[in-house]
Amino acid sequence: MDISTKIAEKTLVASLKGEFDMDSVPAFKEKIITQMEKHGLINLILDLKKVNFIDSSGLGAILGRYRFLKNKGGRVFLLNLKPQVEKIFQLAGMLKLIPVFSDLTEALEEIKEGGISSAQ
Amino acid sequence: MRNKAHLSILSRSSNVGLARITAATFAAELDFTLSELEEIKVAVSEAVTNCIIHAYPLEEGIIEMDLEIEDNKLIIVVKDQGVGIEDVQTVLQPSYSSKEDHMGLGLAFIDSFMDDFQLESQVNQGTTLTMIKIPEKHKKTVG
């Protein structure tokens, strides 16, 4: 899986590409943690537009970041889920925890305005 | 229609993708929809991941996957010779996980996505997971 990152509105926006399974988890954690610590960020947007497969290992890695950042007062949003990927999040009950957007500007606006509470 | 295939892999995370692609490619011989093939990929991914994490926690071992098509029915058997499971009933409970950083959803996904599955294990002998899936359009005709 390839991961590219950028920073917008004091938020790390990470675009993932490929298949998110246990083989991708170490690189995902390393990249996200390093970038967020380096820039002192607590908000994360994961763009999954180019992720065509995810299993419970991928979900576990995302949930781990969600719990960690929530404890720091930060938030995690998901962007652009493909139907087969959304089904996995849905089955795991994670869509009750993590908001999903289809537009980056809209997600960044929510972060800027603090429109969605991290406390669930 | 009848067909068989076998895959033998080392318990490495880089082989999880190989196992699920192999299973989905084999399963495509049947009339599965794309959505059903995605479900098979998730189930196989979870099965092989479980072998890597739980069966061979300390050293690499061999994971065997047998694929079979019989009368429009797909049978996938994933087998290891690892540490085994002491209490199979416990691991079948929803969200059970022996590892703190894992969600315990692997078998729940397998249960959701496959029509039937069976888990057999013996401590220090290994574990065998048998999964069955029938294309939705053939469910009325296949017993």
Summarize the structure.
Chain A has 120 residues and is α/β, with parallel strands linked by helices. Chain A is built from four helices and five strands. Chain A is globular.
Molecular structure report:
The complex is a heterodimer of chains A (120) and B (143). Helices cover 42% and strands 29% of the residues of chain A. Chain A has 120 residues and is of the alpha/beta class. In chain A, β2 (11-20), α1 (25-39) and β3 form a beta-alpha-beta unit. Chain B is of the alpha+beta class. In chain B, strands 1-2-3-5-4 form a five-stranded antiparallel β-sheet, covered by helices on one side. The two termini of chain B are 15 Å apart. The mean pLDDT of chain B is 92. At the A-B interface, α2 and α3 of A face α1, α2 and α4 of B.
The first-to-last residue Cα distance of chain A is 30 Å
Report the β-strand fraction of chain A as a percent range: 25-35%
Q: Helix- and strand-based class of chain B?
A: alpha+beta
Q: Give the quaternary arrangement of the chains.
A: heterodimer
Largest interface: A-B, 16 and 22 residues
The span between the termini of chain B is 15 Å
Structural shape of chain A: globular
Major sheet of chain B: size, sense and barrel closure? 5 strands, antiparallel
Output the number of helix runs of chain B: 4
Total helical elements of chain A: 4
Q: Can you list the strand order of the major beta sheet of chain A?
A: 1-2-3-4-5
Average pLDDT confidence of chain A is 93
Query: Main sheet of chain B: which strands, in order across?
Result: 1-2-3-5-4
Order of helices and strands of chain A: EEHEHEHEH
Shape type of chain B = globular
Order of helices and strands of chain B: EHHEEHHEE
Strand count of chain A = 5
| Low-pLDDT residue intervals, each spanning 5 or more residues of chain A | 116-120
Gyration radius of chain A, in Å: 13 Å
Strand runs of chain B, count? 5
Q: Fraction of residues of chain A in helices?
A: 40-55%
